[in-house]
Design goal:
The chain folds into 3 domains: 199 residues, Rossmann fold; 115 residues, no CATH class; 200 residues, no CATH class. The protein is built from 16 helices and 20 strands. The strands form 4 sheets. The protein has a 9-stranded mixed beta sheet with strand order 10-20-11-19-12-18-17-14-13. It has a 6-stranded mixed beta sheet with strand order 2-3-1-4-5-6, with helices on both faces. It has a 3-stranded antiparallel beta sheet with strand order 7-9-8, with helices on one face. Helix 3 crosses helix 7 and helix 4 packs parallel to helix 5.
Length: 517
């Protein structure tokens, strides 16, 4: 007998301190995400995107008895401040109404299960736990017994409601996220086991008592690398399915915290796995930030790149559009110009990607080779209450222009076509800046190659990113530096003006990160 599985996706990582919200238009643009789609068109498009839903679809096709996937909604928007109430209500309303329609259609078999491709850190203007609220509304429709499987981003702020209402819940195990499809496939396998078993497996969950800075969370480095290696070993030993979400630490909500949860054949196995992982992760010192002020980062990069035959990569982490920044601050551009980086290495120092639709439009109007007397970038509000650095004045030479349509070839979202809008490469004093009309994190070398920039021969590459860039840029980098230039995304959670985060957790952040730059 064919089983009918409703599938849907809702992805937003909410920085409650960020300057701009995610409205309905943001979900229709998508930017670096696939744009909003509903119904059969969603399934056709998502089949080749490299997202968890893609992996779930592939695994579902191999299930016996067969699975018929009932497409609902895919909705994703670039990280920002809160999702607007109107946008969340529309997306959640469509998913819930599709579940109601499937249940009310016994002639075609009704509904056997639901799979949700979620982020886990979405906050709306009227709701601090969007994923938990969506699950509550679905449970009100389908009842307590219909299996619901969920996949989550590694940065999910996992709530009690999410743990209570999902039958299966799995999270990425890599950051940069190169296992998105594998996570969706794992969700499908665990859902198949849940359907066969007839009940939810025993779970055990534990939280960490401090927040982990985004820049410290890379699974390509210690301590996360070791913890996730041990996670796989523990699961092999105990027959468990374990997860560790390091959380998104720029969400001022009551349940923002790293969380471990494990499921197994027995409650004892689940508890043993969770306690073993908690003991590994609950050590504050290894998570300490390794970060440089902007001036020091540029000075060190210039010192390193002279003898290196590969580029020095600098992460502009506090303007990461993958964490709520708008990818438009200028602190590192000012510093590179002040220290003469472009004069020293003409055409071999590049900053990307700067979100400046006006500059891109003017470059397109003028054409390659033209000179523009314009400013680029923006001074934006930051979590300190002070604006970021001023825009950078011209003149700027237009090196190249493009339509911004970019096929990603790196380890993240391989095969996805990013729609960056009108783009241009501008140059001043030997320094190149790639500007775009959409908002996207620089996580793939093709985003630079689109503008004629060859990443491998650069001396210095500044990326508007915190960690995702490592998947495609670390293999070509001689050194990777993380810089702290003024921006809306705090590298250090202790810098943020918390209101809702529990006081005990705020105190622990201040204690554990005291003395960090």
């Amino acid at each position: 007998m064919t089983l009918r599985i409703l599938v849907a996706g809702f992805q937003h990582e909410t920085n409650t301190f960020a300057p701009s919200t995610a409205d309905w238009a943001a979900f229709n643009r998508g930017d670096a995400f696939p744009a909003y789609r509903r119904g059969a068109a969603m399934l056709r498009f998502m089949a080749g995107v490299g997202a968890p839903l893609s992996g779930f679809m592939t695994a579902a096709a191999a299930q016996q008895p067969g699975w018929a996937l009932l497409p609902s909604v895919w909705a994703g928007a670039s990280p920002s401040a809160q999702v607007t109430e109107a946008a969340f209500e529309r997306i959640a309303g469509e998913i819930v109404s599709d579940a109601q329609a499937a249940l009310a259609d016994p002639a075609h078999g009704g509904l056997d299960a639901i799979y949700l491709d979620l982020h886990g850190a979405a906050v709306a203007e009227h709701c601090d736990d969007c994923e938990g609220e969506l699950l509550r509304r679905l449970r009100a429709v389908v009842g307590p017994d219909l299996p619901i499987a969920v996949s989550l981003d590694l940065h999910a702020n996992v709530s009690d409601a999410m743990l209570a209402l999902a039958d299966v819940m799995v999270a990425y195990r890599t950051y940069p996220h190169v296992d998105m499809e594998a996570t969706g496939a794992r969700a499908a396998q665990l859902l198949a086991e849940r359907l066969k078993r007839g009940s939810r497996a025993p779970w055990h969950a534990l939280a960490l008592p401090f927040l982990i800075p985004i820049a410290s969370q890379s699974t390509m480095r210690a301590p996360a690398q070791h913890i996730f290696s041990r996670l796989a070993e523990i699961d092999a030993q105990l027959g468990t399915s374990s997860n560790f979400c390091m959380a998104f630490p720029a969400a001022d909500i009551a349940e923002a915290a790293p969380r471990i949860w494990c499921s197994g054949a027995t409650a004892d196995a689940a508890r043993a796995a969770a306690e073993a992982l908690h003991a590994l992760a609950c050590q504050p010192a290894p998570w300490a930030l390794d970060i440089l002020p902007a001036q020091a980062a540029v000075t060190q990069a210039l010192s390193l790149c002279g003898d290196a035959n590969r580029p020095v990569v600098i992460a502009d982490t506090q303007d990461n559009p993958g964490a709520g920044g708008d990818s438009n601050t200028t602190g590192l551009i000012h510093e590179l110009l002040a220290q003469g980086a472009g004069r020293r290495w003409p055409g071999q120092v590049v900053v990307g990607l700067l979100h400046d639709p006006a500059a891109a439009a003017q470059a397109h109007e003028a054409g390659a080779g033209a000179w523009l007397d314009i400013t680029i970038g923006s001074a934006v509000p930051t979590f300190t209450g002070q604006p970021s650095d001023a825009p950078v004045a011209g003149p700027w030479r237009v090196v190249s222009i493009s339509d911004g349509r970019c096929l990603l070839k790196g380890p993240m979202m391989t095969g996805h076509v990013a729609e960056l809008g009108a783009c241009a490469c501008l140059e001043q004093d030997g320094l190149q800046v790639v500007v775009m009309s959409a908002k996207a994190q620089l996580l793939d070398r093709e985003m630079l190659r689109l503008q004629g920039v060859v990443p491998e021969v650069m001396k210095i590459i500044v990326v508007k990113s915190s960690n995702h860039f490592r998947a495609d840029f670390a293999p070509i980098a001689s050194h990777v530096l993380v810089a702290k230039a003024a921006g809306p995304m705090a590298a250090d959670p202790a810098d943020l003006p918390w209101r809702k985060l529990p006081v005990a957790l705020r105190a622990r952040i201040d204690t554990t990160l005291e003395g960090q730059p």
